Amino acid sequence: MESLKNRKNKTSSGDQQPEILDDPDRLINEETAAKFLGVTQRTLQNWRLKGGGPKYIRISARCIRYRKRDLIIFADERLVSSTSEYENGGRSA
Fold first, then answer.
1. Residue 4: its pLDDT value, please?
2. Coil, helix or strand for 58?
3. Number of compact structural domains in the chain
4. Is residue 55 part of a domain?
5. Are 32 and 16 a contacting pair, CB within 8 Å?
6. b/e string for 50-70 if b means 16 or more Cβ within 10 A?
7. Which distant-in-sequence residues (6+ apart) come within 8 Å of 87 by Cβ?
8. Average pLDDT of span 32-58
9. In terms of C-beta distances under 8 Å and separation of at least 24 residues, what long-range contacts does 29-32 make, across chains too?
10. Structural domain of residue 62, as residue ranges?
């Protein structure tokens, strides 16, 4: 059986445990959300300020969290199969 100390060392190295990302309602921090979407944390911050980004949860003034489910929805809404779809606002004609 894996000791708590070993388990703690694995998670403190910055590696996200797979079971955390498997739960679509699990709250994830800005860094993990940015990595998931393939953007920078600054991009997420700009989207929050200007609008147009994924839904987020404001725990406090300095604590922002995202649900994996909302990140997937955000990405799926922008899914296109050709540049002509993108030029039409992401919708097929």
1. 47
2. strand
3. 1
4. yes
5. yes
6. eeebbebeeeeeeebebbbeb
7. none
8. 96
9. 29/64, 29/65, 29/66, 30/64, 30/65, 30/66, 32/66
10. 22-79
Cα–Cα distances (Å) from 82 to 22, 73, 77, 91, in that order, read: 30, 19, 14, 10
Residues 6+ apart with CB under 8 A from 62: none
Q: Report residue 51 as tokens.
A: 């609008």
Residue 20: CB atoms within 10 Å: 13
The DSSP element (H or E) to which 64 belongs, if any, is: strand 63-67
Ramachandran angles phi, psi of 60, nearest 5°: -150, -175
| pLDDT for position 25 | 87
67: domain CATH number?
1.10.10.10
Structure tokens at 14: 């910055």
Rounded Cα distance between 62 and 45, Å, is 11
48: CB partners within 8 A, 6+ apart:
56, 64
- 54-88 tens-digit pLDDT: 999 999 999 999 999 999 999 999 998 888 866 65
